[in-house]
Amino acid sequence: MSTSGLAYGDPSGPATLKMMVQLRSVTKTFGSRDNQVRALSEVTVDFPAATFTAVMGPSGSGKSTLLQCAAGLDRVDAGDVILDGTALTRLRENALTRLRRRQVGFVFQSFNLVPSLTARQNVALPLRLAGHRPKGAEITTALAQLGLADRAEYRPSRLSGGQQQRVAIARALVTRPKVVFADEPTGALDSRASRDVLALLRGLVDDHGQTVIMVTHDPLAAAYAERVVFLTDGRLAGELTGPSPDLIAARLTHLEERPC
Fold first, then answer.
1. What is the CA radius of gyration of the chain?
2. In angstroms, rounded to a whole number, what is the distance separating the alpha carbons of residues 212 and 183?
3. What 3-state DSSP class applies to 113?
4. pTM summary value
5. What is residue 181's predicted lDDT score, i.e. its pLDDT?
6. What CATH number is given to the structural domain containing 223?
């Protein structure tokens, strides 16, 4: 991997390295004033184009919130989010929605499939929302890549949790977005399906130059990325490049054992 040895943010790295997603002093809180939780606290981090980054940390560390803010699904309370040169924090809601439809694919932890639509229709939905007429062949190919060619006409209620997750992944990829955000994409999958999905995500980067940012708790999954960013208590807690499962697991254990 051409970027595996790069120290991200290091000025000695290639000056031409393009940053696809940038967070600048991002803060995000939830709850009322008397019961407020700060999910992210002044987080600054870059995600270079055509790279695969895993985001990890203890439960409640802010991983999913970082993903949602970076994708423009949640508005930040302070700071800036920049996606492919566009500051999301300065866009009106309609413009932000259009940008997400063009450039972002998001795999939700809870799938978020439309119950009344078949697998084929769920996958085609982002194209229809963007004003495009889906081609049958591209929907069939998207489903086949995830091993779902024989489930195209099934509604979510007839699919297992793992099959629903794979439909959600196919839906996120069908528009060929510049950035794929994936929140625990292998959480509902068995080991073989997990390997297939992770290899597919890896291929988006290596073969198509797309950018993948994935939240995971699994060191084996994270090792498919060339870089792992760690969070704890809503703050950055370091990173690894060219990581192995053992190194990732050791870093996670250290973070989980740190006193609050």
1. 18
2. 11
3. coil
4. 0.90
5. 98
6. 3.40.50.300
Helices (H) and strands (E) in the chain, counts: 8, 10
| Residue 143 within a domain | yes
Local structure of 99: helix, strand or coil: helix
Q: Rounded to whole angstroms, what are the CA distances from 93 to 74, 96, 100, 122, 134?
A: 11, 5, 11, 23, 25
Calpha distance 130→102 (Å, rounded): 7
Question: Has residue 3 been placed in a domain?
Answer: no
Q: Which two tokens stand for residue 250?
A: 């050791």
Contact 148, 196 (CB under 8 A): no
- The alpha carbon of residue 184 and the mean position of all alpha carbons in its chain are separated, in whole angstroms, by 8
Decide if 215 is inside a domain: yes
- CA dist., res. 260 & res. 238, Å (int): 17
Count the domains in the chain: 1
Strand locations in the chain (E)? 19-30, 37-48, 52-56, 78-83, 86-87, 104-107, 179-183, 211-215, 227-232, 235-241
In which domain, by residue range, is 76 found? 19-257
pLDDT digits over 2-47, tens only? 333 333 444 444 446 799 999 999 999 998 878 899 999 999 999 9
Give domain status of residue 2, yes or no. no
Give the type of residue at 63. K
Q: What are phi and psi of 82, to 5 degrees?
A: -120, 125
Tokens 């999905």 correspond to: 197
Residue 12: burial class (beta carbons within 10 Å; 0-12, 13-18, 19+): exposed
Q: Are 82 and 156 in contact (CB under 8 A)?
A: no
With beta carbons less than 8 A apart as the criterion, state whether 84 and 103 touch: yes
